[in-house]
Specification:
Blueprint lengths: L4 E4 L4 E4 L5 H5 L5 H6 L8 H12 L4 E9 L13 E10 L7 E5 L10 H15 L4 E7 L3 H9 L3 E12 L2 E11 H5 L1
Parallel strand pairs: 5-6
Antiparallel strand pairs: 1-2, 2-3, 3-4, 4-5, 6-8, 7-8
Length: 187
Amino acid sequence: MPGPVLEVGDDLVLRTVERDDAAFLQRLFTDPYARTSLHEQTPKSEAEVEEFVEEELEDDSNAAYLACVDDEDTPYGHPEDDETTPVAFVYAHHVDRDRPRLLLWTPEEHRGDGHGAPALELALKGLFRTYDAHTVGAEVLEGNDYVREAFEAVGFTNEGRDRERRFVNGEYRDGIQYGLLREEWEE
């Protein structure tokens, strides 16, 4: 059963990640850009992803969300599996600090649907309402244009570049650092 709905947007709902979402999230670990951004070097089995959900995503210092296309008009509560389709994953690492870090992953079949920026908007709305973050940061690896465009679309500022930061797809990629101040979000 999908987790409870936390935020409602025009076309998406944001809900919590549950252990039952491991099959969907396992695909994240096959995407070298997303996997590397999580500091994971190899793909994971579904059982390993369930363990990741328990140890990392359910940790109180982190917040993890699935952005879903809600197939029913039931905005809050626990939708049934057939009433919701996950289209993006947003992970906020260290929400208990001044500058949590965000990661966005969208499965390849949904990248042209325009769900990345709205998923980030819903996550930021919840983060700034729930946590005392002064700013939110993100690292986007060079070549991950879909994610870069989504962060820029919601107002993140390019704050710098870490040259050859991570090894992805047979070569070193620069890490582009992004930030969004609470005051910029609230304007």
